[in-house]
Specification:
- It is built from 12 helices and 2 strands, in the order ααααααααββαααα.
- With 332 residues, the chain is mainly alpha-helical.
- The protein has one domain.
- It has a two-stranded antiparallel ribbon with strand order 1-2.
- A hairpin with a 3-residue loop joins strand 1 and strand 2.
- Helix 4 packs antiparallel against helix 5 and helix 5 packs antiparallel against helix 6.
- The longest helix has 28 residues.
Length: 332
């Protein structure tokens, strides 16, 4: 494994982590197929389609991570484009207007150019400034007033979520190389995505098994306090367990903090897991609220068995910026 890692110029720990992810997915696929064969239902086609989608997404993600910053930037730029397109289609359903134009998609390659170049200042200001000022200005200049406030607001919000927030996941690769001596900066992004997806799954499974008390019955009826709390515990445990393999969190922050706090090995990884769990929960219910408002179950049918891109990245929209700024504060 070390020889292969050296040949493709990645940290051995990163390669081990990706190998574990692929082996876990393979084992889960075998169990799921056996389960479907033993207990057939009317939803078996959707379940098999979901498995195929998972394989496609995982292979694309792992391939991009192993290929470097440019490949990750391109992958997340495509994700942002598809997510923004779905968001605009959903929010244009009621009025049928499009006062802000399609030029907003130009922001996507521009934002991810800063990611690839590792330029933090334009990364932080380009999308927020363009969203707050240019979208409204060009919409007003078009002379179309019907649905102006609604659509400008939705478009600004959509760009901020699907482009600006999502791009923070890829920007983890542009942190100083010294921030992660364990698995390289790619370790940060694998850690984030793995915990975000694990948190979604664990909250759903725990809620299905033990859920009794609903958190947001009118927004997401399947979300329960039992599922949320047990999911948070699961994510924190995974965060602590995976940190030595993928991150330098157990080494403590480089900034000047109280040594008694800094030198607690599991504190910083446990806090990372907690932030990701809470962020994932709020990302999930935020997108659920949007879909309920516009009267749809899924954001699209792009991903067989799983809905649309927004259904897949709803938690990441919140966890990516939260985790990025947490790591940036600790190590940059």
């Amino acid at each position: 494994m070390n020889a292969l890692a050296k040949y493709i110029n990645v940290q051995p720990n990163l390669l081990w982590a990706i190998s574990v992810i692929l082996c876990s997915l393979l084992a889960g696929t075998v169990v799921r197929v056996i389960w479907i064969a033993a207990l057939p239902t009317d939803h078996d086609r959707d379940r098999l389609a979901s498995l195929k989608t998972w394989w496609s997404l995982v292979l694309l993600f792992c391939g991009a991570v192993l290929s470097g910053r440019a490949a990750v930037g391109v992958l997340f730029a495509v994700v942002s484009f598809l997510g923004l397109r779905e968001f605009r289609r959903l929010t244009n359903r009621d009025t049928g207007t499009n006062v802000s134009g399609y030029w907003v998609y130009v922001l996507i390659p521009l934002q991810f150019l800063w990611v690839v170049l590792g330029w933090f200042e334009p990364f932080w200001v380009t999308v927020p400034v363009a969203s707050l000022l240019t979208i409204a200005g060009t919409a007003a200049a078009s002379g179309q007033t019907k649905g102006f406030v609604r659509q400008v607001t939705f478009t600004t919000w959509g760009v901020m979520m699907t482009v600006f927030c999502v791009s923070h996941a890829a920007m983890l690769l542009s942190l100083p190389e010294s921030s992660n001596q364990v698995a390289g900066n790619a370790g940060w992004i694998v850690y984030l995505v793995l915990l975000t997806e694990s948190n979604d799954i664990s909250q759903a499974l725990w809620g299905r098994q033990f859920g009794r008390h609903k958190v947001t019955p009118h927004v997401s009826p399947h979300k329960t306090w039992e599922g949320l709390l047990l999911g948070i515990c699961t994510t924190v445990i995974l965060a602590v367990g995976l940190a030595p393999l993928l991150t330098s969190l157990h080494d403590g922050p480089i900034r000047n903090v109280n040594p008694a706090v800094r030198d607690i090995p599991i504190l910083w990884s446990a806090l990372a897991g907690f932030l990701i769990a809470i962020g994932g929960f709020f990302g999930d219910i935020t997108m659920s609220a949007l879909k309920r408002d516009v009267g749809v179950k899924d954001s699209s049918t792009l991903l067989p068995g799983q809905g649309g891109i927004l259904d897949r990245i709803d938690s990441l929209i919140f966890t990516a910026p939260v985790f990025f700024y947490y790591v940036y504060w600790l190590f940059a």
